[in-house]
Amino acid sequence: MDKLRVGYIGLGAMGKPMALNILKAGFPLTVFNRTVEKAEELLTAGAEWADSPADLARRSDVVFTNVSNTADVLSVVLGQSGVREGVRPGMIFVDNSTISPTGSREIYESLRALGVSALDAPVSGGEIGAQNGSLTIMVGGDAESLELVRPILNAVGKKITHIGGAGAGQIAKAANQIMVAAQMVAEAELMIFAQKAGADPVKVIEAIKGGAAQCWTLDVKPQRLFAGNRTPGFKASLQAKDLAIVMETARQNLMSLPGTAVSAQLFNALCAMGEGDLDNSAVIRVIELLNNEALQTA
Amino acid sequence: MDKLRVGYIGLGAMGKPMALNILKAGFPLTVFNRTVEKAEELLTAGAEWADSPADLARRSDVVFTNVSNTADVLSVVLGQSGVREGVRPGMIFVDNSTISPTGSREIYESLRALGVSALDAPVSGGEIGAQNGSLTIMVGGDAESLELVRPILNAVGKKITHIGGAGAGQIAKAANQIMVAAQMVAEAELMIFAQKAGADPVKVIEAIKGGAAQCWTLDVKPQRLFAGNRTPGFKASLQAKDLAIVMETARQNLMSLPGTAVSAQLFNALCAMGEGDLDNSAVIRVIELLNNEALQTA
Known about the structure:
The structure is a homodimer. By secondary structure, chain A is α/β, with parallel strands linked by helices. Chain A has helices at residues 15-24, 40-44, 53-58, 70-78, 101-112, 126-131, 143-153, 168-197, 201-208, 216-226, 236-252, 258-272, 284-291; strands at 6-9, 29-32, 48-49, 62-65, 92-95, 117-120, 123-124, 135-140, 157-164. Chain A has a six-stranded parallel β-sheet. In chain A, strands 7-8-9 form a three-stranded mixed β-sheet. In chain A, helix 2 links the parallel strand 2 (29-32) and strand 3 (48-49). The first copy, chain A, is elongated. The N and C termini of chain A lie far apart (58 Å). The relative contact order of chain A is 0.10.
């Protein structure tokens, strides 16, 4: 059996290395991006260029998207010259973007009417994970479609979980962000708390990181903050965007999430300060301002 | 050199197994407790009984306390027939209770006037850690005093960190509880969020626990909650008490901790419902009520 022909739309910080890994795994690849310059490395490596999402779909068996938000995905898939105009029955569509579960369900229904199976497959693991193919992928949609594209996903991720029907991948990603945001806020609050109360936050982190508070966040982020390093990693503006999806989904489903609501407001504040391009751990900047206290740096 | 004679006051769920481990390590032990029945196992094992904290202090080189709250420690140490009445210069006092940093500093100053060095040494690791001697111990006070009693602490803990001066151990413990509480609340919110939005929370936890959200909490607590098991572990009422210490310390030092403030309120709500004797992960009961949704159990 010939290898599936893959199309990849959206060659940003995540999409470009993921598309490269798919190409390296031997899948014939066609790409599209709003700004053509970002495709150069891929074209040099052997990928082909499509003039539109519809054109890309006509030349592919499986179409991936990886763009910024719900509106962008809907436009690229359902808009003029979008993916939907180029599909044929039996194709599979995979969205690696993090968008609202309702957006993913709308795409699923729209493409199903044309005999196309859509998977929402948001990822976790950041740019490093995208580059070395070690992403966590949370998948919603038809399980049999996931099995058909799993050989492609294996080129970009190391843990691929089928969560449930359309939108379930987005729900899992949103749930993931609830915990990540809570840890970032708690890390910031506990370090400023310790320092302002008179204890050395370096020693406090060292003492507590192996106990009941243990988490990946405490394992890697404090040492970067103590070194004055607030570059991403994972951008605070994306954390804020993902928390907005959580709160929008919560409202649609009549949910109350008091802790997450506060996390979302603190990340919004960081973005309001013009610091959204920093790492998500930089939410400590908001806690520093609230407490008139700057974290010590080495 | 003869082994230091140890006195241990407060033989509750934590203090009793800790005192037993000190006795097993070969230190001559005298004990005191409000209710004498809780001392029986220790007396059978070779410990001696003291009629009051003052009496216990007279017969010891190092005096430990492990009681419920700041007022109890102050009473046992500074009150009538308290430890302070029985001390002599050169002795060391070690408080394993989790109390306010200001309470620890008050005791430090009061005992220092009599030539006694006080260490605040709260622990983390729960009843299991107390039983098998694997506690994390965060120590405030004079570093040289810690070195003198370290052979005794080695019998109860595996990670012993000197954080700083008097009260610094309590600050570290409070900081630890900021992160633990945040994780408990986030775990609860993300599981109810996922379930109510239509995804299987079991699969969501499985997908996210190894990624950026990784933490000891997600490693051990969801499987207990899915099994309907909400027994402690670490009691929610103690989590609420420790968060009250955080917020009191924050107020004294003019701090603003928006995330922790919400965590404290949710644990207060759990206690208000009469559920404070459950595990701290049972804070999901509050999130369940707020969302009119019960977590699925196996």
